[in-house]
Every structure is written in structure tokens, then in C-alpha cells.
Amino acid sequence: MSGTNAGIKRNRLPAGVKPVRPDVRLAPSTYEAFNDAARASGNLSLSLYLEYLAQALEKERGGLPVLPPTLDGTEVATTTAA
Q: How high is the mean pLDDT in each 10-residue block of the chain (82 residues)?
């Protein structure tokens, strides 16, 4: 799927705030679900959509939910620093 980025509302952080770019790996279906929701929410960038989602959850629940290590019974790979 190719297209233009024209008209997408971008996440603009306050002056002096450095963005953090964590290495996030998503299943293609998860990425598509987030991306579709971002577009349906007013053509937001994925970054801006996630910022708004975090704010909405914090407002609604008082914080972000803490989830179990696995939701579907699959093993989670973890690594430790040397």
C-alpha cells in the first residue's frame, strides 16, 4: 500500500523535548490495526495516535494498564545485559 503523507497530523513535541525512538517490533496485523485506527481518528500519524491513546487511557483509568507477560500463552523472549 503506497500513498502520500500529505494531510497527516504529526506529533509535535514541545521545544527542547527530544523524541525517544524505541525499537518496537509489531506483527503486521497489529501495525495495520494501529495504523487504521490512527487514520480513522482524524488522519493522525501513528506517533500522535499513540500519544493520544496513552493520554486517554491515563485519563480514563488513572494510568496505563499493566498487562500480563503473555496474553495468548506464548513464551516471551527476554534478554539481560551483560
A: 66 84 88 96 92 95 88 64 62
